[in-house]
Write a structure and sequence with these properties.
seven-stranded mixed beta sheet; binds iron/sulfur cluster
Amino acid sequence: MSILAIPHLEWHVTHSCNFTCQGCGHYTNDGYKEDITIDTLKEWYLLWNKRIRPRELSILGGEPLLNPRIVEIIYMTKEYWNIKEDQEFELVSNGLLFDRIDGLSDALIDTNCILTITKHSKDSNYTRLFDKAINSIDKSGVKYRIHDASENWYLVYTGYGCSIEPIGSDSYEESWDNCPGGQENFQLLDGKIYKCGALAYLPLQKQKYGDALSPKWDPYLKYRPLLPTDSDIDVLEFFTRTAETVCSMCPKNKHYYSKDTPLHSPRYVKSLYDTK
Ligand code: SF4
């Protein structure tokens, strides 16, 4: 069995988040409280680490720094995926908890893991906390970069919580051309690999809300991810597939907007939608 080079693989180490971003593409603005354990992550990695070799590997969430085992996870991930110099190892975070995690800087430096900090908003209360976090990160010596998403976020669904509805499209090809997931952000979840975060984490919303979730999501809940039992041909076909019909879940045009503060509580955000 030969190992297949793929562009990118990412996964949640927690579904919990300390932010409530409007329109979160992974739905983790919705008050989830669930960390992925180290043993579970090892199981997922071992199912794939001899079959695929991602050029980029990204640890994310939710907010990954909420997982209390994050330092061990960073070291273990480097070891289990045998990440080399020609690959990029990344931790994506909102940065606000950076100072609170013992050993985090050392782990990032030791494993050559780059810290990507997403900037979510231009709101002044948020920006003050963001700037403080960046100041600490800058002094720590870790390699980091800022992904400024304060003005170029775009919605893939409307509503919040159980009221979410896909914006949808009459052309899955055009939706794919404007893919909000970046076309290559394959997700590892429960040992399976999904085309994108929007498809991977949608079943969490279904588990949470059951029949209260709009039936407009039903076609996308039928999406079949890549399974560890699938053949090498299936794996190759999966990673070379481009537009597929499930992409009609996403809008065909980009609806850019400037994000509100991500610091509201889920309860407050829910109340805003309930009054609409
Ligand atoms: S469903 Fe298709 S267009 Fe939408 S985020 Fe996923 S891969 Fe991209």
